[in-house]
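Deliverable D5.2: sample structural annotation.
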Amino acid sequence: MAVGYRSIFSLRHGQDAMRLTAEQFRSWLAFKGYRSAAVAPGVHQVAEDAQLVVTELDPHIGSRSLRCRLTESSSAGEWVTTVTVHRDGREDDWVWVDVNAPPSTPGPAASYERLIKDVDAADAWWTGVPHMVRVLLSVADAHDGEMVLSAQPTLVTAADVDGLISAICDPGRRGTALVAAPIPDVPAPRMTSHVERLTRECVGLAGIYVLDTGAAAKLEESFAPSHSVPLGAIRTFLPEVDPASAVDARRHRVLLARTIAEQPPGKLAHLLGRANRSRALNLPLPSPVAQVDRLLSREEPAAVLRAIQETPPDPFGRGPGDGAAGLAPAGQAAITAVREVAIAGELLTSLVSEFQSGVSRADVPGGPDDMAARYRELLAEGRGVLRGHLEISRRLAGLQDMLEDVEDERDLVRARLEDEQLAHAETQAELLKAKLELDRLRGILSRAGRVDQTRAAAAAAQSPGSFAELLERLDEHVLSCVIFTGDPKNALDLDDFDPLGTWAAKSWDVLRVLNGYAAARRHGEFSKGVHAYLGHTPAGRPGYPPGAHSTQESEPVERSPKLRKLRVFPVPEDIHPDGAIFMDAHFKIARRGLVSPRIHYHDDTSQTGKIYVGYIGKHLPNAHTN
């Protein structure tokens, strides 16, 4: 059974997610025609073919987690809707909704159009946006990072553009941001309704924004052309937007006005909905959500076991809510084992009643010996039941451990794949640019008869095969304007993650660029800072993509004494009397989860003509990773 829809969002502080979600869940059950049921822990049969399992956790004072899982049986299979809500009183409450769809088994009479509309890429039935999610996002002030999540598009005016840019560039945002530019001469209300039809299957998955004319003009001024939103188009901004990088723009697809005009709205809504579902389902769960999920996943089987024990199924018939027929063999075996233990418990109860009845009667045949034999039988049966319960508990715990390990490994592989794909695209773009420049320079040198003079520069440009080799070159002062003052161990640790020396080569390119920048400053070829140099590299000097460079750290890092301290690195005392200085300027070498290597440096070209590199190593902790 595949997950067909997933939405995770937070509610602004002061809203009670527990109350709101419980109210909307009960209303949703009534909307579906199920009998009223309190959202209380336990197993509830809300209809003949619908069962509700409610699990609650209260692990900490002031903290509460609730999960409602509704399983509905139909001719197509089982639909499972799981709503999880968490409240701890400190951070914003959050809500997580999953819908599992049954596998699709279309018959020969199924048309191609029906398959395209109703069956998704995972061969499961298409899952629309749950009615409860639409209603909840209509009555609550929900968000994903700084991005607004609502059931209707958000109209953006010129005064709101700064907030929109913050949401688009927010590193804490997980979902996509869909930004629609206006159509000339179309009023804003009509444009908003038009976008609402196109994005109706993205509710709960993306922040949906509609620019008015003034907002569109201001956003175009703020963003480079590569990240702009053409008139009449809808652009999907993925997380971690880098407006300074032309390569990054490839990640953020544009649905052009011509395509929107030529294609039916229903088809485009399905296209956008499918893309956003796919991305949401491929993201790892946020760490706080994953922690609560694992606690609830361990508690839920125990709750079901307790319910089975309280109402043992009929040994000769199918019990209420029995869905084992549609399960995989492993699931059938687990259900069978649980029922066998429950039946044994029922037999044990009968034996206890018989024993008590026999003790109270004087005319029992066999006398004390017979009673003792029955007592031993009772004890043996009891031990068997206990062993069965313990074995099932151990098996469930073991399966949960295996599931969590596999989920962790899957999330790690997905993150690495995404990082490597982006890094590859950036490398390909830079390689093409470098080849064109190399051909041009070779022609110039050949005509000038100065080919031999490039040999020394070529030696310096030769990439090291590891960070160990890179450090040796720095010790030999191959780069005369770059001084390394950091701890070599941090750089050497990166070799474990860089078997082919790719990161070491890119780091060396960065150091060559810093050396070229310092030399250009010393010779009067350039007078501005490093970032300006990257954007306007003098002829003959090495360059690097400006998008890989940051002149300062994020605001949370700048404000945090603890995080600032991690970025204070050694320099000579004639540079700073403390013998150390805060190095916020840095280069991003690669994207690889928490490793993502960085180079932090201090630009002292205006005084000593040198660049002091204080750190080469893994990404330092920030507000999101600390």
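Annotation notes: The two ends are 36 Å apart (CA to CA). The first helix runs from residue 17 to 31.
The annotation will be released with the project's public dataset once the embargo ends.
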